[in-house]
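Exercise 7b. Backbone tokens:
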């Protein structure tokens, strides 16, 4: 399983405690490009029937009791039951997002919406990750109202957003109203739902890259506003017809995982970051040492060459005794550094002193070569 899927599996298991945070996450699952509302009376049964007298334990709790009816396909249902079939579908292109929305709907409203099979959706084309939930018109209206969306008389859904109504189909150009993300905890829940719907994260072993792929500019603007409110800045680029918000900084990606409550993924990311930093630091040190060794070897080779040239010329024996001592030690130990060469001298001498003597010997050799050429 990929790193991105591991993150989504963790986020799938994270369920907000507060009802308003659950609504914010559901708004992201429906509004960030992962869901479509279809109204069609022939789609078949999708919502499990619950006994009206069943007890409901607290707000948002699941309906329980022995009165649940057995769920059957449209062909097996009597005519009276078929008339009660769902009036619409909530269609998710991402299966894990659809399953999370199914859980949130059950927790928020007590609607136990069931996934529809291909045969139950009226022979519609199936896709690999398609996830369908059947619901009645009343249930759809309740869900849309909670995430601040409305349905107009002509069947078009729009955002209930003060000062701005975006009129178009939900799939094409609609995002939830900002009113569902007024608190910081709700923004974090919204971010979690957005990642489940349209987010992906590359393997940090290879690259640091988090992105959200959105269908419309309105959705990109909405998500960018939520990220900005959480002090997260993302870049934007067009990819074919999609709007992509991306983050390549590892620190900011770690912040996003923290905000989304993906703590296991965050620890894994941090471990990888530490290993990569240690590995890079070791590589830098090795490269530096290798460069220094190479530089030392080249300098020592040049010094040995110059000293041998001087020794072959008349007048070498007239040089000061300290220069002859340093020259003899360099010829005897061509591989050692200047600091090591200083320790080999019988009299105390510093590294800079040894360097000065060797440079003087090299300068003398160069002058003799110039005189010969002239």
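Sequence design result:
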């Amino acid at each position: 399983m990929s790193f991105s899927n591991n993150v989504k599996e963790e986020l799938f298991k994270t369920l907000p405690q507060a009802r308003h945070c659950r609504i914010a996450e559901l708004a992201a699952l429906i509004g960030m490009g992962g869901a479509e509302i279809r109204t069609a009376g022939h789609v078949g049964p999708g919502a499990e029937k619950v006994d009206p007298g069943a007890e409901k334990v607290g707000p948002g709790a699941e309906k329980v009791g022995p009165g649940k009816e057995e769920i059957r396909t449209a062909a097996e249902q009597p005519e009276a039951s078929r008339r009660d079939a769902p009036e619409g579908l909530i269609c998710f292109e991402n299966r894990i997002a659809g399953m999370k929305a199914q859980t949130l709907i059950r927790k928020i409203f007590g609607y136990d919406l069931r996934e529809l099979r291909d045969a139950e959706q009226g022979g519609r084309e199936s896709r690999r990750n398609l996830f369908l939930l059947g619901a009645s018109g009343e249930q759809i209206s309740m869900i849309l109202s909670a995430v601040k969306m409305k349905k107009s008389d002509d069947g078009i859904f729009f955002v209930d957003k003060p000062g701005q109504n975006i009129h178009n189909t939900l799939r094409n150009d609609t995002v939830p109203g900002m009113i569902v993300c007024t608190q910081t905890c709700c923004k974090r829940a919204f971010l979690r739902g957005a990642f489940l719907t349209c987010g992906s994260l590359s393997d940090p072993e290879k690259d640091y890259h988090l992105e959200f792929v959105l269908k419309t500019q309105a959705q990109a603007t909405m998500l960018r506003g939520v990220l900005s409110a959480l002090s997260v800045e993302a870049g934007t680029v067009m990819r074919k017809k999609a709007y992509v918000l991306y983050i390549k900084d590892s620190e900011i990606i770690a912040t996003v995982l923290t905000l989304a409550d993906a703590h296991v993924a965050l620890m894994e990311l941090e471990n990888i970051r530490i290993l990569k930093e240690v590995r890079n630091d070791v590589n830098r040190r090795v490269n530096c040492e290798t460069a220094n060794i190479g530089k030392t070897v080249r300098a020592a080779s040049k010094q040995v060459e110059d000293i041998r040239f001087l020794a072959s010329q008349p007048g070498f024996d007239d040089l000061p005794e300290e220069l002859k001592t340093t020259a003899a030690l360099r010829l005897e130990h061509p591989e050692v550094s200047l600091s090591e060469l200083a320790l080999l001298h019988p009299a105390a001498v510093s590294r800079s002193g040894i360097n000065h003597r060797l440079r003087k010997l090299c300068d003398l050799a160069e002058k003799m070569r110039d005189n010969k050429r002239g």
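Instructor comment: Residues 151 and 157 are 4 Å apart (CA to CA). Confidence is low (pLDDT under 50) at residues 41-85, 160-173.
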